[in-house]
Structure formats: structure tokens, C-alpha cells
Here is the input.
Amino acid sequence: MSKQRVVVGLSGGVDSAVTAHLLKSQGHEVIGIFMKNWEDDDDSEYCSSNIDFVDAAAVADVIGIEIEHVNFAAEYKDRVFAEFLREYQAGRTPNPDILCNAEIKFKAFLDHAMRLGAEKIATGHYARVRQNPANDLFELLKGLDPSKDQSYFLHRLNQAQLSKTLFPVGELHKTQVRQIALDMGLPNAKKKDSTGICFIGERPFREFLNRYIQKEPGPIRDGTGQPGSRGFGRALGQHQGLSFYTLGQRQGLGIGGIKAKGAQKGGGEHAPWFVARKDMQTNTLWVVQGHDHPWLQSHTLTAQDASWIAGAPPTTTDLAAKTRYRQSDAPCHVDSASQQAFALTFPEAQWAVTPGQSAVLYDGDVCLGGGVIASAHAGE
Here is the structure.
């Protein structure tokens, strides 16, 4: 690759630090940008952007590059957080990291970098980009470290964005990245990976959401009895508001000691409860006992707001999909696919397929794109 001006998103973490170092060592002109995306309560114990900026500046100093602090908080609130709240209020469970990548890191940040005269941008994501010689299209590939691959979060990127993007650590395993950082003496070489949602950090989630969404308590019911009958569903307690729960959720239901109806002594009465359905019309939270309950198993899903990396939906019908990030690829059949939507069938039932989350399609290591899950058909 010829020497280029590359603007790197320096987060204060080890992955972006090694990204900047690798590009500098390849002879590129590297400029670091620290993105501030959240301003509310930024001085609290959960928001660490001030600490992260100090770490990013220390990294830039060691590598020998300039760093600029850029505030995208207004764009973030308009393009990501507002949508995040709308989805939760509608009873769905959105993935703000996906929207943040599409709207901030590879749009607002990319635009800013281009104004600085950049030819490329780079981030510390574990993914890869290649240009297919057969059709000149840019492809998004999984990172080589299967335990760290982040292509799922990047599936909304388009050809224009990918053509300007580098992911140097996508060619490495995390252990190699840590070793490079240690060998260089980077101050953040042993810094713990961040696991919180991009703007929430590690704070208690319900406490955070409570500041923006009003509580609307309602009944928690199980699926005992005959569906459609008057006595269907035993009342087990009160929920705090449907927005605060997600399908498959096990913790924080407040009904742990209640036994399944008809459970025999010594049987499965202590099996955990899981959120299985949310009925917005009646404000009812439906729960079931046992991880393998039919209500938690889905063979089909429909997705909307689709985004295809090649610019058009795939023509291959036998592919693989993830319906959540921490999941192995599941074989699936594409029943239909358009620019805006698609429908999938899975030979093996998928667990707790959740409206608002993303279904992302793969052909081997190549990420094809995906969409927002609108509905899934679970067993009765």
C-alpha cells in the first residue's frame, strides 16, 4: 500500500493504540482523533471519557503522532440516542453500538477525517476489508480472532465507507495485540477491554434507562393454562415497565422463588424463569420456566431496515446468520430478500430471537449485511 494520510480513532483502549502504531510503522502519516460522544453525567463514576482521553493522549505521545479531541455528542444524541429511546419505548431492544458505527464512527468521524485531508480512516475493530478483484466491490470479512470478531457491529457499512477504512488489528489475535502493546511500552497495554454500551459504560442499565423512560408497572404472567381462555397465565408479580426487559432475560425478574405450576417435589420446580414475550397492548410481561421452553425457540424471523454491504441483497439463499453478537453462525435459508427487508428460516431453532436486535448474514467469512429483527415465530 502506498503511504497515505490516515486518521485513526483513538479511544484510549489498546486495540486502537496498536492500530495507530502499526500504521505509523508502515510509514503512513497518522493523525489521532479522540471522539467524545456523550456529555450527560460525564463526571460520574460510570463515564470514563476524561480518563480515556488521557490514555489516548499518552498513547499518541509514545507513538509520536498528533491527537485531536472532537466532540460528536450532539450528532450522537440526534442520530443514535434518540433512536435508542424510541426503540425501547416501543418495547424492542435496540443495539446502539451498530447505529453508532454507522452514524458516528463511519459517518461523522469519516467526514471530519476527510476535511483533515485524510485518504483513509482506521479503527481498532476486529474485522477485515478486501476488494474483490472479480467485481471491484469492497467486502467486510470477519476478524481472524474468532473470539473477538466485530463484523456483526459493522454490518451497516456501505461501499463508500469500506473503501476508506482500514482495520489493522483484524489481521491479528487479541493476544498478539496485547504483546505488541507491551513490547512498545504503551501505557494502556494492560487496560481492561470496555464491555458497556458505548454511552452507558458499566453502569446499572435499568437505573440509567429510568432517567429517560417512565415506569409503567404491569403484571408478570406465566404460560400455564389454555391459550385464549380466561384463566390463561398465572399472575406471578409486577414488572417495572416493559421497556426495562428483554427476551431471554433471566436476572432481575423478582420471581425467583416461585415454582412452576404442577411441579413435583424434586422435579424441575427450581428451573430459572426467562422473559419470553412482551405484550405492549395489555402491558403484560410473559415469562416461562426453563431455558428450552418452546416460547424461547424460533425457526423463522423477519427483518426490516436492511442494509447490504454490496449495495444489493444476496442472491444466494443458503447462508448463515447471527441473531445476537455472542452467537455461533447458524445455517439459514433466505426465504425472501429485498433492499429493505428479508425473511429467514433456520433448520435448528434459535434461542430468544429479539425484536430490535440485528440479524446479520454471512457467506463464510464474508459479512453480507443485515437488518433489524421485526418479528420471530416461536413455538406455542
About this structure: Helices lie at 14-25, 49-63, 73-89, 96-115, 159-162, 174-184, 205-209. The chain is about 20% helix and 30% strand.
